[in-house]
C-alpha cells in the first residue's frame, strides 16, 4: 500500500489537499457522490489548474487547462484508461470503453463502420418510433402536476439503443417490470465505492464485503439483458431473416448493424472477437454507454428548457417548422440548429461524463506549466471544470445556447469544450447520441409545454445524473 519513491517524490511537488498516511485522501476527497462536482471546482480554486490526490498508493493528477487536455486526449500513446476503470471490469469485461492496447485498437477498427452516417440514417427511424412512444407514455402526466421525467427518458433511451444497435426490441417504455435501468444506477454506485476505497482493491478483502455481495446480485440482472438480446439476435440470424434488408423481425425492420456485425465476426473467427464473451462485453458496454449518458443529458436539457420558457419557445418554433406528416430523417434533425446549440450548452454545464482518466505509461510534461507527470500516475481531465471556467465561458452558470453560434465561439480553444472527449479514444457514439437526443427532445417539445421546478439535485457515480429530478409539469400544446 506504499507508493514507489519516484512517484512519491514527483507527487510531493504537486499541490493538493493534505493526505493521510497509507489511505491518502480517501476521507477528504470523494471521487463521487452529490458533492463531487463542487469538490472539483473548489479544489481547482484552492490549488490551481493542476493538483493531485492520493487514493491509497495511487497518484491522481487533475488537469483543466485546455492545452493540457489537448495533449492528453490527442496522444496516441496515453490511451490506457486510468486505474479507476479497473473497477468496471467485472461488469464491462473487455468492452471498448475499458480495453486497451492492441485489443482496443482491433475492436475500435472493427466497430467504427457500424456508426457510419448511412447506418445512422436507418437508426433515425428507430429514434422516431421510440420518441413517438415516449410522447404517448407522457400523455398520462398531462395536467397532473409535477413528476420526475427522468424515468420516462431513461426507458426511451434504452429502447432506442437496443432496437437500433442491437436490432432487438425490449419495450422498456411499455414494460413496467424492467429492473435493468435501476441496476445500472446501483452498479455505478458500487463501482464508485470500490474506487473510493483502496482496501476494496485487494480481492481477498473485497470478497468478504457486503459491497461484493451486492455487486454479484446486480451482475446477475445486468448480465441477463445482454444475454437475452444476443440470444434473440442469434435466433433471427439462424432463420436467415437478418440477411434481407427490408424484412421484419418481430415487427422490427431489419436495421441491425452493430450486433449483427459482431456475431458475424465471431462466426468468421475475427481476431477481435474470439469468444461469445467478447461479443457480450461489447453489448454490455454499448447498452450502458449508449443509454445512461444520453438519459443524463436529456434530463438536464429538459430541466433547462423547463426553466427557460423563452428558449423552449424558440425550440418549439424551430421544430414545428421541420416536423411534419413524414418521419424525421437525419437531414431534418441536422436542420435543428438552435436545438443543437441547446443540447451543446446543456452538455457544457452538465457533461454526462464529468471527468476522464488515463494511466500515464511514460513520463510526460504538461504543456501549460512544464510540470513533470511521472509514469505510473493517473491523469484526470476534469471536463466539467474546464466547461465552467469563467475565462473560457463568461458567466459560466448562465444557460446561453448562443455561446455556440460560430461567431461567438471564434477564438475559443477547441479543447475547452469536450463533452464527448476527443482524439483516438473519443466517444464512438457521438453522432448517434446527438441525433437520438434531438429526435426525442424535438418530439417532446412539439407536443408538450414543460415547466420545471427549480430544485435540481445532482449526483455523480461514473457519470453525473440528476437525482430524483427534474420534477416537471406538462401541458399539451394545441395546434
Ligand atoms: C450524451 C451522450 C454521450 C456522452 C456525453 C458521451 C461521452 C463519452 C466520453 C466523454 C467518452 C470518453 C470516455 C473515456 O475516455 O473514459 C465516451 C466514450 C465512449 N462512448 Fe460515449 N457518450 C455519449 C453517448 C454514447 C452513445 C450513444 C454510445 C453508443 C451508442 C457511446 C459509446 C461510447 C463508447 C463505446 C466509448 C468508448 C470509446 C473508446 O474508448 O474507444 N456513447 N463517451
Automatic annotation (TrEMBL):
It is found in: Endoplasmic reticulum membrane; Microsome membrane. It is a peripheral membrane protein. Keywords: Endoplasmic reticulum, Heme, Iron, Membrane, Metal-binding, Microsome, Monooxygenase, Oxidoreductase, Signal. Its cofactor is heme. The keyword Amino-acid biosynthesis does not apply. The keyword Glycoprotein does not apply. One of its GO terms (molecular function) is iron ion binding. PROSITE patterns: CYTOCHROME_P450. One of its GO terms (cellular component) is endoplasmic reticulum membrane. Heme binds at residue 427. InterPro entries: Cyt_P450, Cyt_P450_CS, Cyt_P450_E_grp-I, Cyt_P450_sf, Cytochrome_P450_Monoox. Belongs to the cytochrome P450 family. This is Cytochrome P450.
Amino acid at each position: 500500500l506504499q507508493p514507489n519513491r519516484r512517484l512519491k517524490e514527483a507527487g510531493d511537488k504537486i499541490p493538493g489537499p493534505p493526505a493521510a498516511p497509507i489511505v491518502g485522501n480517501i476521507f477528504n476527497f470523494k471521487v463521487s457522490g452529490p458533492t463531487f462536482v463542487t469538490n472539483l471546482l473548489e479544489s481547482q480554486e484552492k490549488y490551481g489548474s493542476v493538483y493531485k490526490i492520493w487514493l491509497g498508493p495511487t497518484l491522481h493528477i487533475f488537469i483543466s487547462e485546455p492545452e493540457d487536455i489537448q495533449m492528453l486526449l490527442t496522444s496516441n500513446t496515453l490511451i490506457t484508461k486510468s486505474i479507476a476503470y479497473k473497477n468496471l471490469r467485472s461488469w464491462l469485461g473487455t468492452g471498448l470503453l475499458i480495453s486497451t492496447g492492441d485489443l482496443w485498437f482491433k475492436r475500435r477498427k472493427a466497430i467504427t463502420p457500424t456508426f457510419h452516417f448511412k447506418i445512422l440514417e436507418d437508426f433515425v427511424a428507430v429514434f422516431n418510433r421510440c420518441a413517438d412512444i415516449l410522447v404517448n407514455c407522457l400523455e398520462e402526466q398531462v395536467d397532473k402536476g409535477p413528476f420526475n421525467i427522468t424515468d420516462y427518458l431513461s426507458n426511451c433511451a434504452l429502447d432506442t439503443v437496443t432496437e437500433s444497435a442491437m436490432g432487438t426490441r425490449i419495450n422498456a417504455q411499455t414494460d413496467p417490470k424492467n429492473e435493468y435501468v435501476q441496476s445500472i444506477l446501483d452498479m455505478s454506485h458500487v463501482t464508485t465505492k470500490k474506487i473510493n476505497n483502496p482496501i476494496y482493491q485487494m480481492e481477498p478483502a473485497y470478497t468478504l464485503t457486503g459491497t461484493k455481495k451486492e455487486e454479484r446480485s446486480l451482475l446477475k440482472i445486468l448480465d441477463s439483458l445482454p444475454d437475452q438480446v444476443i440470444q434473440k439476435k442469434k435466433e433471427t440470424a439462424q432463420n436467415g431473416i437478418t440477411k434481407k434488408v427490408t424484412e421484419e423481425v418481430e415487427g422490427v425492420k431489419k436495421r441491425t448493424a452493430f450486433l449483427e456485425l459482431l456475431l458475424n465476426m465471431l462466426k468468421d473467427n475475427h481476431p477481435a472477437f474470439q469468444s461469445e464473451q467478447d461479443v457480450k462485453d461489447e453489448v454490455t458496454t454499448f447498452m450502458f454507454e449508449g443509454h445512461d449518458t444520453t438519459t443524463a443529458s436529456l434530463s438536464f436539457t429538459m430541466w433547462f428548457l423547463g426553466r427557460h420558457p423563452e428558449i423552449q419557445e424558440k425550440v418549439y418554433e424551430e421544430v414545428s417548422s421541420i416536423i411534419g406528416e413524414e418521419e424525421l430523417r437525419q437531414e431534418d434533425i441536422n436542420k435543428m440548429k438552435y436545438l443543437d446549440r441547446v443540447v451543446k450548452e446543456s452538455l457544457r454545464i452538465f457533461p454526462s461524463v464529468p471527468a476522464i482518466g488515463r494511466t500515464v505509461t511514460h513520463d510526460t510534461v504538461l504543456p501549460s506549466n512544464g510540470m513533470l507527470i511521472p509514469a505510473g500516475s493517473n491523469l484526470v481531465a476534469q471536463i466539467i471544470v474546464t466547461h465552467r471556467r469563467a475565462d473560457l465561458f463568461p458567466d459560466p452558470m448562465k444557460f446561453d445556447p448562443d455561446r455556440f453560434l460560430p461567431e461567438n465561439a471564434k477564438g475559443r480553444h477547441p479543447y475547452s469544450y469536450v463533452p464527448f472527449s476527443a482524439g483516438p479514444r473519443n466517444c464512438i457514439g457521438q453522432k448517434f447520441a446527438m441525433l437520438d437526443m434531438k429526435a426525442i427532445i424535438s418530439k417532446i417539445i412539439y407536443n408538450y409545454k414543460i415547466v420545471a421546478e427549480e430544485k435540481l439535485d445532482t449526483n455523480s457515480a461514473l457519470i453525473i445524473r440528476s437525482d430524483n429530478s427534474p420534477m416537471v409539469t406538462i401541458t399539451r400544446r394545441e395546434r
